[in-house]
Amino acid sequence: DITIETISPLLSKKMDGFGELFRNLTYQEIGTGSILSRAMAGIIEGKVIISLPGSLEAVKLAMENIIIPELSHLVREASR
Hints:
Molybdenum Cofactor Biosythetic Enzyme, Chain A; about 15% strand; globular
């Protein structure tokens, strides 16, 4: 999967903490298998872009623990 490598050059701002936090949460759920987990967030043309692993569990983890709690902050950051 080259999604992150494809999207990264298009980002005007990368939110490094998103991937770091996602990996930490994944570690709490699945342990050391989290080293293979890749996620990223950033901004392209004033829009928040988020790339997550394709499993339902990964999406649920990110939505419940990062995206929904930080949604207003993410939108504000994108509109700067």
